[in-house]
Amino acid sequence: HHMKYHMLTAHGLGQKLVCQICRTYTCANNSMLNSHKKSHSEVRSHACQTCGASYKFSYKLKQHLLKH
Length: 68
Known about the structure:
- By secondary structure, the protein is of the alpha+beta class.
- The protein has a domain at 2-40.
- It has 3 helices and 4 strands, in the order H-E-E-H-E-E-H.
- The strands form 2 sheets. It has a two-stranded antiparallel ribbon with strand order 1-2. Strands 3-4 form a two-stranded antiparallel ribbon.
- The longest helix has 9 residues, at 2-10.
- The radius of gyration is 15 Å and the shape is elongated.
- It starts with a helix and ends with a helix.
């Protein structure tokens, strides 16, 4: 399973899904496509409890929290 996923994502083998919003982003699975679609949204659902800064992606909030 891991090798198949690696081949699809890292080497672009298999079916390509295209973002219907920007039409330039392509990926191998719906999970990656759904994550990418967040970049087009204004929704910032990950907020810092200390200062109120908010982010679209949880990893960005985690990076921010290291600064406090």
